[in-house]
Amino acid sequence: MTNTPPLTLNVPEPGCRPGDTPDFSDFVIPRAGAVDRPPVDVDPDDIRDMAFSIIRVLNKDAEAVGPWAEGLSQEELLQGLRHMMLLRAFDARMLTAQRQGKTSFYMQHLGEEAVSCAFAMALEPGDMNFPTYRQAGLLIARDYPMQTMMNQIYSNAKDPLHGRQLPIMYSSKDHGFFSISGNLGTQFVQAVGWAMASAISGDTRISAAWIGDGSTAESDFHSAMVFASTYNAPVILNIVNNQWAISTFQGIARGGVGTFAARGHGFGIASVRVDGNDYLAVHAVAKWAAERARLGHGPTLIEHVTYRAGGHSTSDDPSAYRAADEGAAWPLGDPIDRLKRHLIRIGAWSEERHIQAEAQIRDEVVAAQKAAEANGTLGQGTAPSARDMFEGVFETMPPHLVRQRQEAGY
Amino acid sequence: MTNTPPLTLNVPEPGCRPGDTPDFSDFVIPRAGAVDRPPVDVDPDDIRDMAFSIIRVLNKDAEAVGPWAEGLSQEELLQGLRHMMLLRAFDARMLTAQRQGKTSFYMQHLGEEAVSCAFAMALEPGDMNFPTYRQAGLLIARDYPMQTMMNQIYSNAKDPLHGRQLPIMYSSKDHGFFSISGNLGTQFVQAVGWAMASAISGDTRISAAWIGDGSTAESDFHSAMVFASTYNAPVILNIVNNQWAISTFQGIARGGVGTFAARGHGFGIASVRVDGNDYLAVHAVAKWAAERARLGHGPTLIEHVTYRAGGHSTSDDPSAYRAADEGAAWPLGDPIDRLKRHLIRIGAWSEERHIQAEAQIRDEVVAAQKAAEANGTLGQGTAPSARDMFEGVFETMPPHLVRQRQEAGY
Amino acid sequence: MVQMTMIEALRDAHDVAMANDDRVVVYGEDVGYFGGVFRVTAGLQKKYGKSRCFDAPINEAGIVGTAIGMAAYGLRPVIEIQFADYVYPGMDQIVSEAARLRHRSAGDFTCPLVIRMPTGGGIFGGQTHSQSPEAFFTHSSGLKTVVPSNPRDAKGLLLAAIADPDPVIFLEPKRLYNGPFDGHHDRPVTSWKKHPLGDVPEGNEIIPLGKARITREGKDVTVLAYGTMVYVAEAAAAETGIDAEIIDLRTLLPIDLDTIKASVEKTGRCVIVHEATKTSGFGAELSALVQENCFYSLEAPIIRVTGWDTPYPHAQEWDYFPGPVRVGAALKTVMER
Amino acid sequence: MVQMTMIEALRDAHDVAMANDDRVVVYGEDVGYFGGVFRVTAGLQKKYGKSRCFDAPINEAGIVGTAIGMAAYGLRPVIEIQFADYVYPGMDQIVSEAARLRHRSAGDFTCPLVIRMPTGGGIFGGQTHSQSPEAFFTHSSGLKTVVPSNPRDAKGLLLAAIADPDPVIFLEPKRLYNGPFDGHHDRPVTSWKKHPLGDVPEGNEIIPLGKARITREGKDVTVLAYGTMVYVAEAAAAETGIDAEIIDLRTLLPIDLDTIKASVEKTGRCVIVHEATKTSGFGAELSALVQENCFYSLEAPIIRVTGWDTPYPHAQEWDYFPGPVRVGAALKTVMER
Ligand SMILES: Cc1ncc(C[n+]2csc(CCOP(=O)(O)OP(=O)(O)O)c2C)c(N)n1
Ligand SMILES: Cc1ncc(C[n+]2csc(CCOP(=O)(O)OP(=O)(O)O)c2C)c(N)n1
Ligand SMILES: [Mg+2]
Ligand SMILES: [Mg+2]
C-alpha cells in the first residue's frame, strides 16, 4: 500500500447551479399507490425498504390511489385545501409587509404547505408539536388566529410574546405548538423528552418533532434518535426535506446515504418517506405514525420529500446559488394545485370556486392584517414595553433584575 | 384513538444482574469463516448484512478458517501474542501500583487486548489513531517504551506530559497516537478532520477513530458520521463494544437496533462487525478497512465485539451491577488464550514456551516499572514542577500567565 | 435531625421530593440501577421504579434536552451530569433553551429543571474531573446557580431547587461529599457524621435560594467564598489570626448583595476565593459588584484568590488549588494595605 | 492602501492567507459556493478550489471538531460559525479540546485554528442573532479572543490570528460590517468606504494580538470598549463633552493591561462598555483588573454599561443595546462622583 495515489477530498455538489438546466431525472419517484401500508405494529426491521421509497396517494391524474388512500372526507379535504391556501396567502401578505418595513424578518412556506397543514389534522388535541420555523400550517390548521400570528410578526402591543422573539417564532401550548427556537435542532430532542414524560405519566398524548434536511446534521438529531429508540418514546420524528438549507443542498447533510429516512435504521426506528406535496399522503402517514406512537409501538421517522420553492428567508436570494427555474422543474408539483385538481376530479370543487376562495381568503388575511396593524407594526404605533423585557426571565424577578430595570428607567 | 391504554416508558435492562445466572444464549455468533470478504471497493449498500453478522477467523478448534484468514506470518502472530501478553502484564502491574498508592487512577484492558494490538499492526507508519483510554495496545504494539507510559502514569519527573494529565492519558504523535481526552467522543470527529486534512493535502495517510459502545450515544459520534460520509474521509471508525459503559449495559446506548454497526447504514458507510477477541479477525478487518480508506473508497465503521472483563477503572466495582461470573460466561473467550491455542495448533508455540514467555514478560514489565519508579511516583520523589503547569497553555506565555506564575512563586 | 454525609443529604432530598411529588423524575449516566458514580441516587430506582429513576445514554445534550421537554410537559426532572467537566456538550440546551424558554414564550412554556453536577477538584482527577464551570452559568440569563457547602445546605437547597419554577444549576463540590475539606490535603478530614452541619432536618425543609450565610463573623475583612473554599477560608482565618467575616454565598445567582454589602461596609476589605480559573471567573463579577456597591467603604484593593488560568493539572493539583496558605497570604496582604 | 468595508477587509485577509499558505483551509455553513451569509468568503472557493473552501454540514461541533483534527494534522483551518449565537453546540470541542490540546499533550499536538463568528446585535436579529458570548471564551484557558472594530484592524488581526500557533476566537461585530455604527440607530451610518479606518493596507500586514489602541486621548475618564461600543463611546464623549480616553481593546485575551493601567492612572476614572449581558460578562473581569491594578488611582467607582441580564429582545432592541445615551449618562455619573 505504499504506492497509493494521493487522496482527494470529496465535496458533494448539487445537480444544478445558476445557469444550469434543472434536471431531476435521477430522482426516482415511485408511482402513487405503489407502497404497501403495513400494520402499525410492524417490526421496523421488516419495512426497511420504505426508507428508500416514497409513499404517494395522488397520482398524475389527481386520483387518490393505493393502500394509503383512505380516511379523509370531502369536507376534510376542502378544509385542507383552505388551510394551505390560507397559509400561502398569509405568507404572501407578510412577505410584502416585511418588504414595506413593517417588520424585520419573515420566513415563508411556499411549496411546503401540505406538510404542516396535513400533519396538524392527524394529531389529537393535547398532542404537542416541536416545530421549526417552517410549520406555521400547524397553527393555521388548528385555527390559531391569524391576527395573533401577525401581532407576533409585528412585535406590536398585542404580540403574545411581548416583542421578545424574532418574527414567526410563535408559541402556543393550547394549539400543541411548542415555542420555536432560533437554534436549529434543539427542539428535536426536546420533543422526545416530552413524549417520554407522557409515557412516564401514563398519559395517552404523543409529541411530534420537526427538523429540516440540513439540520439533521446537527448533533441534537442524534440525541433525539438515541433517546427515542432507547425508551421507545411515543414521538413522531419529522424530517422536512425541502432539498435546501439556505444555500446548501441536501447532499451536504445527507452524505453518502440514499435518503434521510435511512438514518432511522441505525436505531431500529420505523422509517418512511412520504410525498410532502401530497396532502393525502402526508395525512395518511401521519395518522399511521400517530397510531403507532399512541399504541406503544414507539417512534416513527418520517422524511417529508418536498421543495422549498421560495427563498430561505427574507434575508436570502436563492438565485445566487440555484437555477432560477429549479422550482418549476421540481417533479412532485405544487401541493395546493394537486389537492385542488383532486377535489375537482372527485367533483367537490371547481376552478371558479377556487378563484372565489382565493379572493375570499385574501380578504380574510387582509382583514386580519388590518386588525393587527391597528395594534402597531415594528417600531410604529404602540409597542411592547421595554419594562417587559425584564419580566419573565424568571417567574419572580430577582433583585439584580429589579435593579437593572430601575437603572433602565422602568 | 381516544380510548388507548396509558403509555409506559421502556427502560432496557441487561439479561443479567448480580445474583442472576449469566445467559448469552440470545447472542447469535456466526461460525468462524462464515462471513464473505467483499472487495475493498464494494458498494456499502451491498454489504448491509455484514452489520448484523460477525467476522471471525479462529474457530472452536483454534484453526484459522474462511476468507478473512490470511496474511499473517507465524512471526507476526507470535509478535501479536507477545503484544497482548505485554499489555496484560502491564495492566496487572499498574493496577497493583495504583492500589499501592503510587498513582491516583488506572484503567485496564482485560479481555480486550486483541482489539488495539491487532489493529495497530494493520496501519502504516504516519497513520494516526484517535484513541480512547482503552487502546494502550496501539502503543505497546508500536514499541512505545513501557517505561515512558509508566512515567506518565506516575506523573513523575520524566512524565512526557509533565504531570498535567490523568494517568493513562498518553500522547505520542510519533507513534500515531493522538492525545487522549477525558471527554468521551470528542476524538471521534477529530479523527475525521485529520483524515479530511490528509485528503485536502493530497497525502496518502489515513486515520482511525475510536469510541466505546456507551459513547456512541454522544453527539460527536453523529458529527463524525456526518462529516466522514459527506467528504468520504479516509478514516476507520472503530466502535469497541465491550458490552458495558461503567454500570450501564450496551442496550442503553444502542436502543432498539440490533447492532452498533448498523448505525453506519444511515450514512451509507460500509459497516462491519468483527470478533474483537480474535486477533486474526481484527487484523484482517482492519487491513481491509485501511485499504478501502487509502484507495479513496472512504470510511469504514467497525464494531469490535468484545467484553470488558475487568472493572471500568480503579474507581469502579462491577460486582455492584453485573453478575460476578458474567465474564467467564462470555462466549467469545479470551483473546490471548485463543491466539495461544491457535499458535500451538499450528506448531508455532507450546504451553511451556507460553509459561516461559509469561515469566519473561513479567520481568520486562517489572524492569520497566523499577526504572520508572526511580523517576518517582505520584507525590513521591522528583515530580514535574509547578512552574510547568503554566507552560504550554500557549506557545508563548502571555503576560497574564507570567504574572500568575510569579504570584504562585515560580 | 439525622447525621448525614453530603451524599446522604442529597439522596435524602431526592427521596423526599420524589415521595412528595410524582412529577419529580431522576436520571443521568449510571444514575439508575447503580445509583450514580458518587452514589447520590442509590436506592431510588428500587424505591420509585424504573420510570422515575433511570440510566441515561451517555449524551449530555440529550439528557438536558429531554429534561427540557419533560419540564415543558409538566414534570420536574432532576438530572445528573456525571462531572461538571462534562456539561459542555449540553451547553446549548442549557444556555439557549432551558434558560430562555419562559422568557421567549412569555410564560407559555416553562422549564422547572434541576441540573446537578459534582464540581471542583482536590481528588487528583486531572483536568476532566476537577473543573468549576459556574461562571458559564452565571453569565446565562435565566439560570439560577447554587453551590452548597455542607449536608444541611445541600439538602435544603436541593429541595428549594426542585421546587423552583425555573431551571437551577446545582453544583456539588465533590471534595466536600464526605467532610469539610479545608485544603490541608496532608491532614485527615473530619466526617460530616461528626460535624454540626451534618445534622440534617428530616422531611421537606427548604433553604431558600438567594440567601448567603455568614459562617464566621469578623470585623477585619470580608471573605466571599462558596463550596470547598468556605473551609479553606475558615482555616486561613484561624491560621493567620485575622478576624475575617466569611460569607458562604450558597447561591451565586441570584446573588445576596445585601449580605455582601453590609459586610464589606463593616470591614472595608474584601477577599474573594474560588477554585475556578481566574479570568472571567465568578470572582470577577463579585469584585465588580463589591467595588460598584462599596467603593467608598473599601480601604484596600479587593483580592481574588483563585485557580490559575491553566487547565486543572494532575500532579500539580495542590499548586493549582487555592489552599489556606494562598488565602492566608491574601488576608495578610489585604490587611497590610 | 485600498478602501474597504469590514466584510471586504476580512475577505482580503482570507485571500492573502490562502495565497501565502497552502495550509489555510476555510469552511463553514454556506461558506463555500455561496460565500457565507455575510459574504465574507465570497469568491474563495472559485479561486482556491473546493478542497480549500467548502460548505459544511450544519453541525457546529463537527465543524470545530474536524478543524481540530485538521489543525493537529498540520493545516491552519479558519472556520466560520454562522452567528456567535450558534457556537454553543461546538462549546465542548472549543473549551475541552482546542483550548487544551497543546497543554495536555505537552506540545506533542497543537491547534492553530481560527473560529470566526459574527457577534453583537443592532440588526433586529432577536435573541439568536445578536449575542456577544466573549466571556465564555475568556474564561477558558488556552484561547485567545479578538474583537476588531474596523476594516483595518479586522484584516490585520485576522491575519495575526491565522498566523497564531494557538486557537483564536475571532468575533466580528456584525453591526460594524458596513460602517462605524455609533448606536444612533435613527441616523444613517457612514460607509467604511469614506472612513480613514476603511483604508486597508494591501498584502500580509499583521496587527499583533494583545495590543489595545487608544482611539481618543482624554484626561477625564478611561472608557474600556471593544467592537461596536468603541463608536458608541466616541459618540457619548462627543455628546457629553467629557474628555474621555477611549481604549479599543481589540484583543480581550491576552489583555493589554499596560495600556489600561497607564490610562486609568492618568484619568482616575473608568467606564466599561459592552453589549453582552452584565453578570459575569467580560466587563466584570475588566472591572476586577482595574480595581486590582489601579485602586489607589481611582477617584470614583468603575461603572459598567452593558446589555441587561435578559435574553436579547427583538422589539426592545434599542432598550437593550447600550447606546450613547446610556454611556453618556455613565460618563456624567462617573465625573460627578
Ligand atoms: C445552531 C444553528 N446553526 C445555524 C443556524 C443558521 N441557520 C438558520 S436556518 C439554516 C438552514 C436550515 O436548513 P434546513 O434544516 O434544511 O431547514 P429549512 O430552512 O430548509 O426549512 C441555518 C444554517 C441556526 N439557526 N442554528
Ligand atoms: C462527556 C463525558 N461524559 C461522561 C463521562 C464519564 N465516563 C467516563 S467513561 C464512561 C463510560 C464509557 O463507556 P464506553 O464508551 O462503553 O467505553 P468503555 O469504558 O466501555 O471502554 C463515562 C460515562 C466522560 N468521561 N465524558
Ligand atoms: Mg431544508
Ligand atoms: Mg463499553
TrEMBL record, chains A, B:
Similarity section: Belongs to the BCKDHA family.
Assigned keywords, A-Z: Oxidoreductase, Thiamine pyrophosphate
The enzyme's E.C. designation: 1.2.4.4
Residues covered by the 2-oxoisovalerate dehydrogenase E1 alpha subunit N-terminal domain: 5-45
Domain of life, source organism: Bacteria
Gene3D superfamilies: 3.40.50.970
Biological role stated in the UniProt entry: The branched-chain alpha-keto dehydrogenase complex catalyzes the overall conversion of alpha-keto acids to acyl-CoA and CO(2). It contains multiple copies of three enzymatic components: branched-chain alpha-keto acid decarboxylase (E1), lipoamide acyltransferase (E2) and lipoamide dehydrogenase (E3).
Catalytic activity from the UniProt record: N(6)-[(R)-lipoyl]-L-lysyl-[protein] + 3-methyl-2-oxobutanoate + H(+) = N(6)-[(R)-S(8)-2-methylpropanoyldihydrolipoyl]-L-lysyl-[protein] + CO2
Leading EC class: oxidoreductase
SUPFAM superfamilies assigned: Thiamin diphosphate-binding fold (THDP-binding)
The protein's required cofactors: thiamine diphosphate
Name assigned to this protein: 2-oxoisovalerate dehydrogenase subunit alpha
InterPro entries named among the record's database cross-references: Alpha-ketoacid_DH_E1_comp (IPR050771), DH_E1 (IPR001017), Oxoisoval_DH_suAlpha_N_dom (IPR022593), THDP-binding (IPR029061)
Residues annotated as domain Dehydrogenase E1 component: 82-377
GO molecular function: branched-chain 2-oxo acid dehydrogenase activity
GO biological process, one term: branched-chain amino acid catabolic process
Lineage of origin: Bacteria, Pseudomonadati, Pseudomonadota, Alphaproteobacteria, Rhodobacterales
UniProtKB/TrEMBL annotation, chains C, D:
Native species: Paracoccus amoyensis
One BP annotation, GO: branched-chain amino acid catabolic process
UniProt protein name: 3-methyl-2-oxobutanoate dehydrogenase (2-methylpropanoyl-transferring)
Cofactor(s) in the UniProt record: thiamine diphosphate
Residue intervals of the Transketolase-like pyrimidine-binding domain: 4-179
Enzyme class: oxidoreductase
Keywords: Oxidoreductase
EC number(s) from the headed UniProt entry: 1.2.4.4
PANTHER family: 2-OXOISOVALERATE DEHYDROGENASE SUBUNIT BETA, MITOCHONDRIAL, 2-OXOISOVALERATE DEHYDROGENASE SUBUNIT BETA-RELATED
